[in-house]
Amino acid sequence: MATLIDPEVERNEILRHYRRLLRTAKPYLSGNDAKLIKKAFNTSLEAHKEMRRKSGEPYILHPLAVAQIAVEEIGLGTTSIVAALLHDVVEDTPWEISDVEREFGPRVAQIVDGLTKISGVFEYGTSEQAENFRKMLLTLSEDVRVILIKIADRLHNMRTLDSMPRHKQLKIASETIYLYAPLAHRLGLYAIKSELEDLYLKYTDTEVYNDLTNKVRQSRGARNRFIKEFVTPIDEELKAQGFGFEIKGRPKSIYSILRKMRKQNVTFDEVYDLFAIRVILDVPQEQEKAACWQVYSIVTDFYQPNPDRLRDWVSTPKANGYESLHTTVMSRTGQWVEVQIRSRRMDDIAEKGYAAHWKYKDTGSVQPESTLEAWIAKVREMLETNNSSALEFMDEFRQNLFVKEVYAFTPKGKLVILPDKATALDFAFEIHTHIGLQCLGAKVNQKLEPLSYQLRNGDQVEILTSQKQRPTEEWLQYVITSKARTKIKDWLRDDKRNKAEDGRFIVEKRLELLGVENNQDNLNRMLAHFNMYNPQDFYYRIALGQLDGREIKESLFDPAIEVPRIPSMLEPKAFDQEVQKIRGVRADMLVIGEETQKFDYTIAPCCNPIPGDDVFGFETEKGIVIHRTSCPKAVEMMSNYGNRIVRAKWTDQLELAFLAGIRIKGSDRVGLVNDVTRIISNSLKVNMRSITIDSNDGFFEGQIMVFVNDTDHLNKMIHRLSKVNGVLMVERFAS
Ligand code: MN
């Protein structure tokens, strides 16, 4: 339906929004600021003059709204207002970055450039998205205002999502919940984060959203009465003691109510903490802490506190800058109520994020000691140390956005903040890479603990090191921070490379001694003899003494190895083709398990094939041996003794028991072995031949040998075992 547009009405509308922006920004403006904002507004108005949004309104209303959010809801200053007004100019109009720089200076240009670069859509799971994301974080470490304005941009787009087609709504909404809401949370923009989540719900699950919104509305009367009754004594006492304060009782966001209902599996009526009481104090900064505790004392004089629910983020702010004192107390009607106590300044930070407090000067400098700066430094560090693919990186980073934190201290009392579930080893790497690499264990609160000790809030951690200590593969299981993991992997890789060099030296010396040429042919002979596929591994194992160097001589003169094929070139996926090729040579096919069999066969102990496996026969002096095509020795047999390969398959009618090995890993707990064996013997009626379980540092690893009928039978058992509580991995093994 076409609407008639009155240019006069439209101009007035635009001016109304612009004046509102100036009014909100006014208290923070100085010098030439107002002129600069006016210039940016006129530039943007002119550049976008032919454009309209999907809703039909003039485009300029969007940059105006983004600037309004930036100043009003995030607390940003003039540079950000100017950048917000210009944020779509380079992307959507003939304006170029150099134009912005010429007219508005390098700082604004840099922010607009950052915003233009990250304008691509973040489609989950694509590497393009991940690259975009990485770019976004790089700009973040240059100037965090890029991300803050980006979040403002996204908030306005979510608020005006109605006019978008359905598929775009879903895409933008899921991108928001996937990335922008967690980012807002991490930057301490609680109000925006909650609104983004609620809007996400509104567009993706409209029915649930409407239902909960109605319920919150309907319960408002009763809730307000309850709140009034609850706060009255507190209110009177605070007045009597001469506090300047405000008390709010605000319902939680729809999204967080829903999350609670689902997590605790309760109905709306059973969610007890639908709202929190907030006491906001007007006190000078130097009296904040004392005042908060004074109010705590008053509140708990009237209501019994729950000692497990006291949170002191006044003494130790959260990493995103959040400061507040939380307590949960019992009301007179027997309901638990959360009370948040904070100063006006803390409330500003909690609502608008750290930027509100930190009020960029136009130099853009950040207070060096601020926690936000520490976080940005951490992001930068992750970007620098991480060498995984962009996609992996993104997942890892997202996980870091969500995780809770654990606070621990060095012996000198320095605070170290790590993700929840971090270990003593993570702590060591956080202090310094060298300390991590030589970490022996830790003294936690004066008590000796292993590397894998999981840190708890308030732990005092002294890392014990030794010059002789070396990282092992096992360490990777103990750490959860990407910093520690990357450093350990780097070390292991370098170590392997160095050892392989030593091994190569040993081999070369021996060849020299034997007077044999060091060439590819001879290398291939050695690899074939030792059943190795890659020279690096070969040298490495020689250096460790896992392969016997004395056998080198034998390998070079082994008559069985006539063809110096290159087994190292044989990729696992070429197996099947190879088998096919060799199988074709002989016409007769061995049918295993047939009553009228022509062949004598035995089952190879190295790979324990069972019916259902892909197999082949191998002729030996003692008859034919059946191997799996995936047997570790298969490559060698096929490449060197092709003439001894016999095609083989299983007969269909078979009721025999075959031996198979299962490897099982997981976190140890009482009763685990019992659970595992019960499933094997009782539920599945499988005969076990042996079981060994080793437990180490909370982890267990076991090998179980069982008799099964075929692969179906075995897979069923593997599936059942993998469901056992604590079991992380179950797999069949060859030998
Ligand atoms: Mn925009």
TrEMBL record:
InterPro entries: ACT-like_dom_sf, ACT_dom, Beta-grasp_dom_sf, HD/PDEase_dom, NT_sf, RelA/Spo_fam, RelA_SpoT, TGS. Residues 404-465 form the TGS domain. CDD domains: ACT_RelA-SpoT, HDc, NT_Rel-Spo_like, TGS_RSH. It comes from the Bacteria. SMART domains: HDc, RelA_SpoT. It holds the Pfam family TGS. Belongs to the relA/spoT family. In eubacteria ppGpp (guanosine 3'-diphosphate 5'-diphosphate) is a mediator of the stringent response that coordinates a variety of cellular activities in response to changes in nutritional abundance. This is Bifunctional (P)ppGpp synthetase/guanosine-3',5'-bis(Diphosphate) 3'-pyrophosphohydrolase. It comes from Hymenobacter nitidus.
